[in-house]
Amino acid sequence: MTRIGVLASGRGSNFRALCEAGRRGDLGGGQLAVLASDQEDAGALDVAREFGIEALAILPKSYPSREAHDAAVVEALAARQVDLVCLAGYMRILSAGFVNRFRGRMLNIHPALLPSFPGLHGQRQALEHGAKVSGATVHFVDAGCDTGPIILQAAVPVLEDDTEESLSARILKEEHRICPEAVKLYCAGRLKLEGRRVRIS
Ligand code: GRF
Fold first, then answer.
1. Which atom of ligand 1 lies nearest, measured to the CA of 15?
2. Burial readout 170-184 (b: 16 or more C-beta within 10 A, e: otherwise)
3. For residue 197, how many other CB atoms are within 10 A of its CB?
4. Containing H/E element for 137?
5. How far, CA to CA in Å, does 181 sit from each of 55, 107, 141, 145?
């Protein structure tokens, strides 16, 4: 049984999609063990409580450095025997120690078709660039910013009258589909990393 830890900074709609998949028994045998946030008022913490999942607020201001905060998060995950970490809107750059500790065992959801538009505001970047297609990507986390091996992607059209909000909503729908799907594939042992390519069996 894969124990899953989720990190989220915001409202937690992707985390909710994971919780709903978990409730349906649709995470490939994976089990949500803990939700940790760097924000004390994150909606994701309420979602965790709603679904009866342990909710932790681990606040950066309580630690002297990024490394010390990351170490506290890693310790909390390790104490709960977490095998897989899912970043679901976790708005912090992770230190090298954290990334190395969970290399090949940490996923992130990004609101653009990587490698286009990494970093903040992927939806706004696609719109301002004039892309006609954008979407969502779930990828393994490596040392770079949104650069790790791609697991799943879903494309959506960028429409003539789109705003950042309308495009974000269309992309979010796909995030909610492919994030639990990628976690399920991982937990079912169906992902194999070959260099940069993720093979799905
Ligand atoms: C999503 O758009 C995700 O792709 C990005 O942050 C947002 C989080 O939304 N990394 P939510 O907290 O899951 O609703």
1. 13
2. bbbebbbebbbbbbb
3. 9
4. strand 133-140
5. 23, 12, 17, 22
Q: For the beta carbon of residue 189, count every other beta carbon within 10 angstroms.
A: 11
- By C-alpha distance, which of 137, 99, 91 is closest to 115? 137
Predicted confidence at residue 128, as pLDDT, reads 98
Domain of 40, in residue numbers: 2-200
Residue nearest to atom 10 of ligand 1 (CA): 89
- 10-residue averages of pLDDT along the chain (201 residues): 97 98 98 98 98 98 97 98 98 95 97 98 98 98 97 98 98 98 98 97 96
- What CATH number is attached to the domain comprising 57? 3.40.50.170
Active site residue 110: yes
Domain count, the chain: 1
Residue 117 CB-half CA count within 13 A? 21
Mean residue pLDDT across the chain:
98
Q: Is 109 in the pocket of ligand 1 (CB under 6 A)?
A: yes
